[in-house]
Specification:
Length: about 375
């Protein structure tokens, strides 16, 4: 017999499972407590025996959720992820997940515990953020916890991931501000004499991310062919600038350049050569396209702040990332195949592109119907001649 039930109190039952013998021939047992009726205990016994038969049973452990999350940070996250991801995971775990779930034994963590935490965070927040957290912030906690518990399943500490049965709050996407063709030209004209002109131009004419633009080197550009190869990204973690691999496999890509960008980059390369001569040995040549006058990298924060000041002066309400949205929207409105747009942006799938830019679809559908109507009218005219 693999297990049996013992009554421990009025509404408390102990399930005793037999797990064979240890290296010394001693019988191994594991006890599970069930509160409720005897039928509840019998049902739980059948479930546990089924797990033993199918190989999915995980022995109860005294490890808490907090213990596991710290272990996951130190043994997995620290060796398998980038510095910015490590910082994001650590923040989620130590500010939100451990205070809310840390004392619960890992094997006794239930979906209800997680869902209750999300509800509290949404309405009450925490010590540092009283009054409730944004749904997007809670969604980040959910992604972190789900990833950690997936690893617990792989390490055979859990039979299943309890976060699979939990739904984070629905995220309302922030409003995207995009420019049309005339507004884009006006923006570029207004930024012409700014030190941020080249990163602005590259972003709005290629759709590259901020970090990708700042990591571009001249070796990545073939101006004769009008082509950029995205190989890396620049990030800022705790004030330190580091180059990293692109965001995803598809983020490593080739992007064609419009002629206006090629012309501007040729002019910019000559200007950089002049800076290099003027500064001599004080110039730090990292081969960067978007660099400071002394050749050092331009930080993402400096670009964001400088762009914000420029937009305020030009009375244009947009973020630097909106240049990427503008690029995609302009292409889609010109009837460019969404698959091509997705490739230029480095999206993992065309679905991501269509989801982000669904606001363009009504215009595209109206234009497609208009063209279909014109084609059918012409066909009818040819037929009746």
């Amino acid at each position: 017999m693999k297990g049996h039930i013992r009554q421990r109190g009025t509404d408390s039952w102990a399930i005793v499972l037999y797990l064979g013998t240890d290296a010394h021939g001693k019988k191994r047992q594991k006890w599970h407590t069930v509160h409720g009726s005897k039928k509840d205990a019998e049902r739980e016994l059948r479930r546990l025996l089924h797990e033993m038969d199918t190989g999915s049973y995980v022995e109860p452990s005294k490890m808490t959720v907090g213990d596991f999350l710290e272990q996951w940070l130190s043994t997995y996250v620290a060796t398998q992820t980038t510095a910015s991801t490590q910082r994001r995971y650590a923040g989620s775990i130590r500010q939100h997940l451990i205070p809310g779930l840390g004392r619960i034994p890992l094997t006794k963590l239930h979906p209800q515990d997680i869902q209750a935490l999300y509800a509290r965070l949404l309405t009450e927040g925490n010590m540092k953020h009283p009054g409730g957290l944004a749904p997007a912030t809670i969604a980040l906690q959910h992604r972190t916890l789900h990833a950690a518990l997936d690893q617990a399943v792989k390490w055979q500490l859990l039979a299943r991931n309890p976060a699979d049965a939990v739904s984070p709050p629905r995220i309302v996407r922030p409003e995207i501000h995009v420019l049309d063709e005339e507004q884009t030209i006006a923006l570029l004209a207004g930024a012409k004499n700014s030190k941020y002109f080249i990163p602005i131009l590259v972003a709005v004419t290629t759709g590259m991310r901020r970090g990708e633009v700042l990591a571009l080197r001249w070796e990545d550009v073939d101006l004769e062919a009008g082509l950029i190869i995205v190989r890396r990204s620049l990030e800022q973690v705790n004030g330190k600038l580091t180059f990293k691999e692109p965001k995803t496999r598809r983020s490593r890509r080739s992007v064609r350049l419009p002629e206006m960008t090629v012309t501007a980059l040729k002019r910019h390369r000559k200007q950089q050569a002049e800076w290099r001569l003027v500064r001599g040995p004080e110039y730090h040549d990292h081969d960067l396209i978007c660099a400071q006058p002394d050749g050092e990298p331009l930080s993402p924060l400096a670009l964001t702040q400088g762009f914000g000041r420029l937009m305020k002066r030009l009375h244009i309400p947009m973020r630097f990332h909106d240049l990427r949205h503008t690029h995609a929207t302009l292409l889609l409105r010109q009837g460019i195949n969404p698959k091509i747009v997705a490739e230029r942006l480095g999206h993992a799938s065309i679905g991501t592109t269509m989801d982000l830019y669904s606001h363009v679809l009504p215009d595209m559908q109206e234009e497609s119907v208009r063209k279909l109507d014109e084609a059918l009218v012409l066909a009818e005219q040819r037929r009746t001649k």
